[in-house]
Every structure is written in C-alpha cells, then in structure tokens.
Specification:
Length: 231
C-alpha cells in the first residue's frame, strides 16, 4: 500500500542545507493502522507531507497504491491527493456557511463528480454516525461532531489511505475517545490509516507505532491497542 525507499528531504535556508529526513524507508501494508510519533524537529511533519503528496522527496522512491509518487507531475499529484488520500486535520477545516453534507460533498465537487454525489455524501455521514446532523452548519455542531464530518469528507472518495494529522488536538477527552474509537472501527472495516500524533495515549489506539528522531526511524513496534484515553 505505502512503500518509502531511501527517502531524503533537504530544505535550504540560504546556502545552508537542513536535512529533515535522512534515507528513511518504511512499508505500511493495506489495512494497517500506524501511528507516527516524534519530538519537534524529528521529521514527522515532513513525513506526513510526503505521504500526503503535499511535498516531494529530495531523493528516494514513494509508492502509493501502485503509483510511484516520486515522479508524478503536479496535475497527477492533485489527482492522487483527491482520489487516493483522505485527509483529517486537527482544525477540521470545514466551510462555515455550508451544511455538513455539503462539506462532505466538496471533494466530489472538486473532482467534477456529479453522479449520486449527495447520496455518497449522506452515506459517508451515516458511516461515521452523524447522518442526523447532515443539514446542520459547523457552528451548530460540537467539536467531536465537526471532526466526524471531517472524517466523512475524507472517506467520501473511498481513498486508499486515511491520513489523520493530530485529529484530536482540538478536542476534549470524551470527544477524543469517540474519534479514536471511530478511526479504529474504520480500520477494522479494512481502511488503511496513518495517524500523526505526539500524544502516547492517542498513539495507543494504533496497532503499530513508528517513532522518528532526527529524520530517521528509531523504533517500529506493533502493540496491543487500548480502549480508553488516560490523562
């Protein structure tokens, strides 16, 4: 599903080269739930941007669902982002004046897909347990409900992977637990999930934790998952 081979990423600050990733290799099979962790400056945000096709590596190969992302054009990357990756962000990124169902429809609108668009959006809302809030605006929803809408939006194109960047960062403990249980249930249904987090109690919901430091993987371990968030 996801294969990174010898990935490097170097940023330039004037004439100074700043390496963010140093020959990183990682394989994530289809259907796995992986948490990527690391302190500030470890390279986890850079890795998230590369996995999400928001940036390109300086060297190395990235294979996503059979596509060699490392050699794609900007237009091809746009297509990959829209069709193969579902994004869930910390800040929800919902359109304030659009209903929940219209927010979920947006990836389909961008893709130019009109056939059964509303039906697909409603089905996505149903899959995350918030169909009864389809007509509500974001400011009429709780934080947890807004994040469920964001997850539904990420799922509506049936992406190959779900990429969640600190998805509970703006939520209280109860809402965080609901969202993590939802992500785990989606994984049990076969969805491949990559979670970026700095919180151990959130990473504990994943079946595998990859830890970064100074642009390299220092730990890659499978684990037993938890059922609650402990603070």
């Amino acid at each position: 599903m996801i294969t990174l081979e010898g990935i490097t990423k170097v940023y330039h600050a004037g004439e100074v080269e700043v390496p963010a990733l140093r020959g990183l290799s990682l394989h994530i099979p289809e259907g796995e739930f992986v948490a990527i962790m690391g302190p500030s400056g470890s390279g986890k945000s850079t890795l998230m941007n590369l996995i999400g096709c928001l940036d390109q590596p300086s060297s190395g190969r990235y294979i996503l669902d059979g596509y060699d992302v490392s050699v794609l054009s900007d237009d091809q990357l746009d297509w990959i982002r829209n069709r193969k990756i579902g994004f869930v962000f910390q800040s929800f990124n919902l359109i304030p004046r659009a209903s929940a169902v219209h927010n979920v429809e947006m990836p389909l609108i961008y893709a130019g897909e009109n056939q059964q668009r509303r039906e697909r959006a409603m089905a996505a809302l149903d899959s995350v347990g918030i169909l009864d809030r389809a007509s509500h605006l974001p400011n009429e929803l709780s934080g947890g409900q807004q994040q469920r809408v964001a997850v539904a939006r990420a799922l509506v194109t049936d992406p190959a992977i779900l990429l969640a960047d600190e998805p509970t960062g703006n939520l209280d403990s109860e809402s965080s637990l609901e969202i993590m249980k939802l992500l785990r249930e989606l994984n049990h249904q076969g969805r491949t999930i990559v979670l970026i987090t700095h919180e151990p109690d959130i990473a504990a919901f994943a079946s595998r934790v990859v830890r970064l430091r100074d642009g390299v993987i220092v730990s890659d371990q499978r684990q037993s998952v938890v059922t609650e968030i402990v603070h």
